[in-house]
Amino acid sequence: MLKKENNYDFREELRQVHKKDRRDYSETCGADELELKNGICIVLPTWEDAVIYTAAKDFADYLFVSMGIGAMIATVCPSDVQKIQLSLSQDIGEASGYSGYSITTEDDCIFVEGYDSRGVMQGLFFIEDLMNLRKGPFMKKGNIRRRALFDFRMVQSPLGMFDYTDEALSLMAHFGYDSLDVWLKDGWTTLRGDYIDMRSLANRAEKYGIKINIELYKVHAMHPEEVGAQEYYDQMYGNLFRACPKIGSIILEGEANHFVSRDPAACIESTVDDIPTGKPKTGWWPCKDYPQFAQMIINAVRKHSKDTQILFSTYNWGFAPEEDRIRLIEHLPDDLTVLATWDMFHQFRNENSVSNIPDYSLRFIGPGEYFQSEAVACKKRGMKIASISNTGGKTWDFGVIPYEPAPGRWIERLRRIIHARKEWGVSGLQECIHYGFYPSIVCELSKWAAFTEIKPLEQVYEDLLRRDFGEHSKKVREAFDCFDEAIASYPISDADQYGGFRIGPAYPVWLLGAGKKPAMEHAVSKDIYYVPYHPYGRERTSLPGIRLIEELAELQTMDALFEKGISILENTGSDEEKLLKLTNMIKFMKNTCVTVKHTKEVYLLVQRLRFESDRRVLDDIIDQLERILLAEKENVENTIPIVQCDSVLGWEPGMEYTGDEAALRWKLRQLDYEINHTIGELRVANGLIDTIQNKD
Predict the structure, then answer these.
(1) Radius of gyration of the chain (CA)
(2) CA 84 to chain CA mean position, Å
(3) Residues 599 and 555 sit within 8 Å (Cβ to Cβ)
């Protein structure tokens, strides 16, 4: 049985990077293996390399905490002592390249050669991975050579948007991530408004082989053609480098930069005198003068760093015609890497309606047409292209769960990303946005896929299941298969991803009024969800009257598959915490689907309520509304014990807690108001003709 947790308890677990007692003492060393023993010496090539020294200390900690073995660290050790020899080499065959490593295991020694310091670190981390799978300090004799397939793998902290403790950095590095993403107002202030010491963060991150990426959320108020524009941008980006000289990359993004474009197809303000212009805002359109803007930033950055990578995001431009997007890419400066989202803007044709991916989804494996068109254009130009892949394990499909438990679909996405690397030269991955990543089987699969393959991902998947679930691994695989299928039926819409799916069963279900629940004061993004529910149709989606009926059918399919998977997990009879927490999370996801279903049903009934003229039919509609609200109340009550047992449920790094026990109890009060007051008012209004006498 799971214990009750307080908010943020999950952080304490994550801060324990190496899990205790992973060794199974019933396992013995095979004839073709080396067993690491007490007193082993980790031999450094030098004390001066901070990354290698950090890696050696980390590995010694791993051996002690996870395997019960004491190790020492030195630059020289006696010849009769078992050792792990660390070194740098530019000649390690097919592993020669960024973060490459060669691991050679002999009778009484392991040689870890890194193409660079990151390679040594990742080599040691991979030994940890292998020993965790083996459940003991055993290494098969022979040679392993691997190198990173991508220039960068970018994430945000699993502890919170700006919570970059050393434990968080270590955890990121263990999963192979080498770039962290910080959202700033300026060189010293986070998007939340807090002071941040970027110089210190960069120095600490560097010890873990992690580079700093910066997204500057600041109005770029001077057009490149204005007098003094270059000096203006020199100062803006000069301030960044003065605060943090070691910037690995910068993302330019229309939504964040608020560039004052003069493109007549777009506008700086979307309304004039409260009347919409009918034009997109400049941050949501591939404006013709973005190349000038980008060149200004390049000029400013290059005065401080020749190596900082400048990423140009096309995140919000999928609504634009392909010819406009491609024309922009054709005119961008050479010194950029285009950053395109992997799956957004893909349109699904259902039986009678069309849906569009608004903001990342695992429903679609990808790549989308939008990504492919830009990848082809970049390849034609010889420009680098990277992708927002979300392969840290989460999309906006479910906003307040730690990861989407659909490994089969993630594996297929990873395969297609590897193909895109070969086909179009995809050079880097942004593996999460502000919802961060959470250690999971998905992160581990992504790490395996991001380095040279030594075994198929499907085999890695099976190995990880056996490691984590032992005798129950086949049943867990059956359950995961159900969840893979469930996500394939996920109803895609902007209103749902910014509605019930965004914050879970705490999403308010209003009949006539509308209001948001109280937000946490320390949240970066306090209310990034829509209220009231309004499934509007845009030019890329069918109108709600057609689409909602099919979405309700998809939710019914999802519900049945979640129920089937939960039943499989519960029938194992296991009381192991890892399996219980998995089951608990799926129950939260199932209850979220129920909330989304009820929200749609209420919306459809309220539309009928507004235009129906038969009072008997109106009475029936009001009765149906009351029954749905009562069912939703029961759903919320059933969710409270679920979130009590796992503090990561209901939490998202940008919004903080929007679906925890406090939020759910607020939702119960909101439902009580609707049931006890609004329903009664509707009944009174429908019966007025019987109670008011004719006064004429």
Answers:
(1) 27
(2) 35
(3) no
